Each structure stands twice: as structure tokens, then as C-alpha cells.
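Lab notebook: predicted structure, single chain.

Context: the supervisor wants predicted structures on file for every construct in the current expression panel, including those that have not yet been purified. This is the next one on the list. No modifications to the sequence; it matches the entry in the shared construct table.
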Amino acid sequence: MSHQEPEPRDDGDERSDGPVDKPDDLPSSEVTEGVEKAPHRAMFRAMGYDDEDLSSPMVGVANPAADITPCNVHLDDVADAAYEGIDDSGGMPIEFGTITISDAISMGTEGMKASLISREVIADSVELVSFGERMDGLVTIGGCDKNMPGMMMAAIRTDLPSVFLYGGSIMPGEHDGREITIQNVFEGVGAVAEGEMSEGELYEMEQQACPGAGSCGGMFTANTMASISEAIGFAPLGSASPPAEDEARYEEARRAGELATEVVEARRRPSDFLSRESFENAIALQVAVGGSTNAVLHLLAMAAEAGVDLDIEDFNEISKRTPKIADLQPGGEKVMNDLHEVGGVPVVLDALYEADLLHGDALTVTGKTLGEELEAYDPPAIEDIDADYLYTVDEPKNEQGAIRILTGNLAPEGAVIKISGEEYRRHEGPVRIFDEESEAMKYVQEGRVESGDVIGIRNEGPRGGPGMREMLGVTSAVAGQGHADDVALFTDGRFSGATRGFSIGHVAPEAYVGGPIAALEDGDTITIDVDELELSVDLSDEEIEERLADHDPEPNYESGVLAKYHRDFGSAANGAVTNPGAKWE
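Prediction complete. Output recorded below exactly as produced.
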């Protein structure tokens, strides 16, 4: 699109009935074709669109740019590049905006309850604009954590030809001769409380950890979901890893715009390539790179929207057969840029593909199978790369993938843990139970945590919070005090993708709806056994039922958006979805 005013007609110009030759099966024909749509076209012309534009497929560019987080601060530039790609390839690009929430800035505050809700608002808003304005296709852009699943859920709901585009990750900072990320700053808070770090050094780290635009650099939630977008087929190979401020990021954006026009012309929809096999590929990638536990929640939600039969127990089955072959932050030291420099996500995907651990026949947004795309991309083999954080399938970092789903009488519907090593497999001890995150954080910051402790945090679930707050502040403070490997934490809320150690989230059913976690009292003995996939409390069913007899909590919010989502959220075991057409109870 030229964004230039159309040339005025001479009186003798032949009049037409408006733009022609747009196929009737394109939704945008409803607002551009025929004499009766002259008022509609007049509105487009006010924005500089001309006859050539109006005769072309209308491709929306969903852009969550904002000045409230470095993850999204640069997305206008990314969107511009995607816009150019659409325009240059014969499409009619239309950019529109949606919200984002900064997880890192809202972390540890009441505002963090908005984070998961933002996933739903993003999906709702993109769906509404696409539906209301009769879009033919989409480029959906993501920066901060919930952008990625929200955008992919919107594409699934609309079933419009769509390409996902990641905004890229931040470069690591440098402090005292080593690379650092936001994770190190969070853990530094705990180190200061323990007297292991001075406030002055923490202040220096604060200034150095985030040197520019982009999402948090480790294999936290944003980079996990961006990587998954390649594995599941929503984004072309190699598109997840270029840093936010690298020219390669803008080349990927232009490529996404061009591909979006192509998929509209081919009428290639998410329902044409998303399948049970593509979701299994996404899980295999997640567990092989030690990705965020939040991806469990988001993949379940995406599968529910797509009508794909995916159960939380499937993560165990896939993790059992898939080794962990990448050791990135938070468990390791390296970040997404390190992976980019040796070939990006396709390096890991190709290693899994060659070992028959992926469904190579799963289709992707390009119209080709994942196997065909990997063979064409031809990434270097891990054994040929000099990178001590990458391992072969035959000699992996861990024999099984990083994600486990634990069940037992404390989590009948399941709970999620990420295993970063092989040494810490079982924990048993009396629980110290807290009714919200702030109480637990105060306990930790007072230096009262001791080796062997079990900390439980409840009333932070999808409905109880509402919104399943992430608790990186608590887990980082524990790790910063030197207890990452000898203190266990569990919650019906979530832990950040930057969390490491023995941290269990998504305990379901949650406390608000009367899950067993609501029955706990200080001193109850908790058993966590990774090998047996167990999360249990030393109480009988009758004792739990008796303690819950008078359980009748009041919602935390009576009005506004948090009250709405308190009412609508489903169980974390099914992805905490709100769409009544999706699979939830």
C-alpha cells in the first residue's frame, strides 16, 4: 500500500462500480465489492488505500507494541517490516493493536493477576477485529510471554490463514565479567536478603541486566513459546531465534508478511496443518530444551481451541521418550542468542527428527511437512557444533525430557514440575502453607527458609487468584539464598519460565474450587517423588473431606475484568481456557 492520496478523476473519466476481481470466498469481499460498498471503500480511501489495495487480499497485522515492557517496545518496527512484506507480495496490509502486560514488572504484585488474563484478552481482541473487519489473513506478532499463546489462539479461533511472528529476545547483559539476565537480578534479591550480596552490587546488576529491546533472553516462557511456534508449524523454521535488535529479526518479519500473502492465496488455514502430531512435536521440543512449565498450560489451551485431543498426561509420555539435549537458562547458563549463533531452534528439531522423535509428516504453515522443511533448511548437526550446552540424543544432558506431570491425593488432576538435573528426585517433609504469594515472600525475605522446607502457596489458581500469578520473586529469593536444590515449593498458581529448582505449579483442582490443597494445614507431611510422578499429602480422603466441609471462599474481586475471569476460567489441567466452545469443565 502506498499511503498516498488517490489521483483525482477528470470529469470525463469512465466510472466503475469499484474494485473488481477479488474472489468471493475472501471475507474482505464483503466490505470492498459492489456499488453498495462505496461507503465502505470511502473509509478505506481516507486512510490512503487505492483500487489496487482494495482488489487485494486484506491481511491484518496484529501488533501488541507498547512502552510498558522491553519485550514489546520495538514491535512497531517489526510490524512495519511485516507490513512491507505483505504490501510487496501483493496483499493489502492493515495494522491494528492489542494489549500486553509486562510479566517482569508486574511480578510479585497484585498486578501479576492480569498476566494470564491478558492471554485471553489478546486472543479475544484479535479474533474480534479479524471477524468484525472481515480480514482474509493474519500476521500475529508476539513479544512478552502471553502474547505468543494469545496470538496463536486467535489464529486458531478465526481459522484464517495466519503466520506467527516473534519479536525476538533481548541480548544478555554483562556484570563482573559474566553474562546476566533478569533471572540473575531476581535471584540477587534473595542473595541480598541472605547477606550474600550487597545492595550496591544488586544495583549495578539492575543497571546492566537488560541492555535493550526484546523478550527475556533465557529459555523462559517467551522464548519457549516462540520456539514452539516453529515446532508446531505456526512459524517458519529459523524465525524464533534472531535477537530483537538484529537485522535478521526484520528479515524474518518481512518473510512473515510475504508468507502471509502466500497462505491467503493458498487458503491454507490453521485447521489444515494443526494436528495431534504437531502438538506432540511442540511438546517434544519443549521438553528437549527444558522449556517453561507455562507451555503446558498454553499448549493445552491451544489444543482445546483447535479441538485437538491433548491431555495433561501426554506430557509425561512424550517427556519419557524424549531426552533433554539443550541446557539453557534457567537451568543452564546460555541464552537464546547463543542458540541462534549456532543455527537456532532447527538444530534441536533436526536432532530430534533424525532420531525419529518428531512426526516429520506433520504439516506446517508453509504447506510442506516439518520433515521437508528441516531437510531444506539443513541445520548443522549438534555433534558438529562446538557448544557445551548442546547434547546429542545418544549422549543427552538428561535421559528424559524436562517436564513431569505429578498426581496424587494433593493434585488429582495434575501438577507441573520442570526437572533441570538428575540429582534431586524426592522430597518429603512438613509443609508451611500460605494463603497467598505475599505471605510466602515475606517468610522467605525474613530469612526463615531452611534446608528441607516444603512451602505451599494456595488461592493463586485460575479462579482463586484470579489469574494464576507467576511467582518468580519467591522462587528466585529461595534460589538466591542457596536453597534451589533443597527446598520444595508448590502452588495452584504458576511459576515463571525463569524459575529453577524443585518448584511445582498448576496444582489442580485449585484451592478455590475445593481442591485438596485447600485442606492443608501447617505440619502436614508432603511427599514429592519425581520418579513415581507423585504429589501427595499424608492425609486420608476422609480427613481431606472433613477439613473441606466448610470451605466456601469469597471471590477476591466482585466487579471489573478480574471478576469476569474469576467466573470464566477453567481448570489449569485443561489449559485454564475461557472459551465455552473449547474443552474444559
